[in-house]
Amino acid sequence: MKTEIDSALAERLVAGHQAETQRRRTAATGGSRAVEATESLEELLQPIRETVLAHCPSVRFMQEADTRIARVGPGTITWTWAVPVGPDCWGEPEVRPAFDVAAHAEIGVKMLSDLIPSRVDGKHTGDRGRVHSLWYCDAFEAGRFEWAELGFVVTKEDGTMFPGEGIAPTARAPGPRVAAALAARGGTLQLGYPLIDLSGAEARREFAERWLGWFADAALEDFQRGMLSPIDPELGSWRRE
């Protein structure tokens, strides 16, 4: 009976994603690049969904607006659909990044705070999760659009991190404040996870394993963010003139 239930769940999940992908392909207003972004994002996230479905029989799949949620115990892993953005997405920053973003999405892992007992044994750091941006952009080679991953942190005026920040890094869509953060122009919004090219097979494998590991930690009430500090964009290999 369990095998039949798992099989039926898998079929509904696949059918749902296919239907939503087709709907977004039909409704896409960003042209062929928006369609490419949607299809490429599906390929990027599919190994995560398949692994969760195969190894977590108690998983619950939900949807809130454009966010899909997989939940096991107090742990959730979430992802959004690709949202097309226009060429004016950066607004009018002082320094414009030397690349374009055609679509953005988010992926995150969280522990549901109402299900986590309070502990004083020092095992937990108080972190509740992290959310990263996914950008369909040409940051690594002009004209070559691929999905890239990055995250942001909000700091104090002196550049230090806020203690006890529950969710960090966080995701941001491209805009003037984000452009300033990428240009290391100061301000309280800074790069907190380096921009990573997800176009290669090895990068995609590492991406899936990393997020599945964070999800497993959250489900076991053992998610710990570890050390986190702002990253100097000048050190990033993604920068191009």
Keywords for this entry:
4 helices, alpha+beta, globular, 241 residues
Structural notes for this entry:
Helix 2 crosses helix 4. By secondary structure, the chain is α+β, with helices and mostly antiparallel strands. Strands 1, 2, 3, 4, 5, 6, 7 and 8 form an 8-stranded antiparallel sheet that branches. Residues 1-6, 25-30 and 119-126 have low confidence and may be disordered. It has helices spanning 2-27, 32-55, 176-182, 201-219, and strands spanning 60-64, 67-72, 75-80, 83-84, 101-111, 129-137, 146-154, 189-197. The chain starts with a helix and ends in a 22-residue tail after the last helix.
Overall form:
globular
What is the succession of H and E elements? HHEEEEEEEHEH
The overall pLDDT average reads 81
Q: List how many beta strands DSSP finds.
A: 8
Strand content: 15-25%
Structural class: alpha+beta
Q: With helices defined by DSSP (H or I, 4 residues minimum), what is the helix count?
A: 4
User: What's the oligomerization state?
Assistant: single chain
Catalogue the unreliable spans. Answer: 1-6, 25-30, 119-126
> How is the main sheet built?
8 strands, antiparallel
